């Protein structure tokens, strides 16, 4: 081989020279595949290995980590490149033929050379040095490697082989001549052919991948027409090649799609998407359309479409359930309040009325027939209400057995007619559950919707207040709200008081008072007293218990008040042990709500266990009404407190028709006679007879009698003569702050008089 040929081949080993000889084909391939991988969001490696120290060179192409989620659609560009490369290869057909002949010559030469000769060893070492693991040697012979992709490098590598054996000179000259004439061109042509086949295979793979992707994909041109689409797109969207993307959308959604396409084409975002409804047949589907650049040269966009109809369906379903009652299907409180809020904020809103309804004796149905029966009743009432209101009126379930009605275009007269019809029709509704008949009736409150109201809760509270009054007036009736109604005024006072109670509990704005209970018959040295409660206002004045205690019962705050009283009384006792030891009995009231509250009873037990030295002086009072209506709970309270040393008193005794009968069941220590039998005991023979009977019964059943409302000495003396043990009232002692109580000996009340 001449020096010129050797230098030429050495310079051909560099990447730049090889790229030049292949007419920039590799650059074109690299650009196209890089763009493809960019769209595929995958990692690609297009590597042309640098020349090693031994002048080896092995161009290779490897694509790895291909994402299956997206696909590029630039197959036309691949076809153009393939056509260009095919043309180059066809123009070098003669070279390829020479290459095949050369391979045959190599094979022939190997068969003529003994494996042991230096000539064969030199060939083997040369090929091994340039090809590495791609050379296969059997018993010292080199296997023909024309099928290996790097065969062109074999040709170049052989040009550097030096055969020193004289017997091989003729063969050596043959190889040098062939390589000088065709070696580099043959190598270049063969590499072009190999890359062309590789691209063709990749094109087929991506075509198959693109066609079978489970996501709809399409290529969109600059006019927003479909150029290419895969199988899923054709089935899902019924696109036709050349059809405009906007043809599938409703006119109202065109602007959204235009904005999305503009954002991508102008480079504001590399990828953007929008969700639009598309009507296919008789059904409307929601699709998420994502767009990104395909080839910037053609300004085409790759569109990927995902069917999100199910997500929208689930969202609508969740929205419905969040705004509707699961049992009845009616709008719930949240939806109802939203409608009221919309009405309040609408300056052109029509005149309207709001009604609150409450099922009477609903708890009785649950208790007697179970909650399943209660649910069935609620469903039946819901259906009847929708039938009884006017067209366009809204019926909602606000919770439990409470319903709300929003009556549009309604004045007071129209609302009253609706209320009258509902009360009458529901009272005639017959509800049966497993042969048990239940009477159905409702209490209903109606209020005119005031557009000037501060908020919707002002309107709702008016309807609620009217509903409460209807229930208190005897149920199965309706009440229309009027701000001048004295009943409404009283109820509002209680509602305001309930707010004050909550604040007073949080800020500790209550104060304990006491009222002495004096012995009438026997002289006792120990103090007897009842603990009373006052709520302190910001100006230091007191709120009457006649206001805040009914409010506490109405708004479920009584148990919290009972806790506060007991807790603070025990704290005072532990801080004033000297006075506490002078007390024989200190009486504390328990509300009916606390009596029925298991959590409260558990708290009471634990709190009393903490103060064992104080407990024996305590006496808990429960009203006769609470004890009779919750007999089991009252019995449980006695069983709980008796072992601790506490005493029990039955308050307001005699107000019920069966008072005496329950004394046999309730093992109490004291009975407090209802004040209505005490105030006229000196003049009313019936009152005197009742008091006398209670006193006689106390002897037989071993309990002591306390008379309330002792407003004069005359009453006290009369009670003493009838056998009453203790008296309590303003004539004996007015309520005083507990903090003012001091220790010391006190004279009996009647003795002082």
From TrEMBL:
<protein>
    <submittedName>
        <fullName>EAL domain-containing protein</fullName>
    </submittedName>
</protein>
<dbReference type="Pfam" id="PF00563">
    <property type="entry name" value="EAL"/>
</dbReference>
<dbReference type="InterPro" id="IPR001633">
    <property type="entry name" value="EAL_dom"/>
</dbReference>
<dbReference type="InterPro" id="IPR043128">
    <property type="entry name" value="Rev_trsase/Diguanyl_cyclase"/>
</dbReference>
<feature type="domain" description="EAL">
    <location>
        <begin position="494"/>
        <end position="749"/>
    </location>
</feature>
<dbReference type="InterPro" id="IPR035919">
    <property type="entry name" value="EAL_sf"/>
</dbReference>
<dbReference type="InterPro" id="IPR052155">
    <property type="entry name" value="Biofilm_reg_signaling"/>
</dbReference>
<dbReference type="InterPro" id="IPR029787">
    <property type="entry name" value="Nucleotide_cyclase"/>
</dbReference>
<dbReference type="InterPro" id="IPR000160">
    <property type="entry name" value="GGDEF_dom"/>
</dbReference>
<feature type="domain" description="GGDEF">
    <location>
        <begin position="350"/>
        <end position="483"/>
    </location>
</feature>
<dbReference type="Pfam" id="PF00990">
    <property type="entry name" value="GGDEF"/>
</dbReference>
<dbReference type="GO" id="GO:0003824">
    <property type="term" value="F:catalytic activity"/>
</dbReference>
